[in-house]
Amino acid sequence: MILLMIILSVVGGALLSVQAAINGQLGSKVGVFRSAFLTFSVGALITALLIFFFETKHAVTLLEVPKWQLLGALLGVPYIVIMVLAVQRIGTAVATVAVIFGQLAMSMLIDNFGWLHNEAIPFSATRLGAVVCLGIALWFIYSGSKSQAEE
């Protein structure tokens, strides 16, 4: 089951890169906010259909959860807007690796301190090594795309 979740996560990441590339192109033609609006509108429609046909009943509704948990929905907006802007200027690979770097750094802080009611997972040398390696990867990808653009 763990391997399946890792594979699904990799597929999800791949789909986010495809989405970023498409939205970058769309945003350059129709505008950043229109592109973001389309993303959320279509996403809301598809998610509503998934809820209607597949979601099981839960004991708690969205209106009954702690209100801070609803903030997660707001955090998707800056991500989409930033990616539409960034992909147009720095390319899909650099923007995606930069996002993953930010995700990794913040997720390790969340894990280490147990923020947002998550179980604490202590910081370690191997986790630090992962952040450093990803930072180096970001630098190489950026440097490689920068030199290609100059040629």
UniProtKB/TrEMBL annotation:
Keywords: Membrane, Transmembrane, Transmembrane helix
Pfam families named in the record: DMT_YdcZ (PF04657)
UniProt keyword annotation of Transmembrane helix present: yes
UniProt-listed InterPro entries: YdcZ
Transmembrane residue ranges: 36-56, 68-87, 93-113, 125-142
Species classification: Bacteria, Pseudomonadati, Pseudomonadota, Gammaproteobacteria, Enterobacterales
Name used for this protein in its record: DMT family transporter
Organism: Pseudescherichia vulneris NBRC 102420
CC per GO annotation: plasma membrane
Record bears the keyword Disulfide bond: no
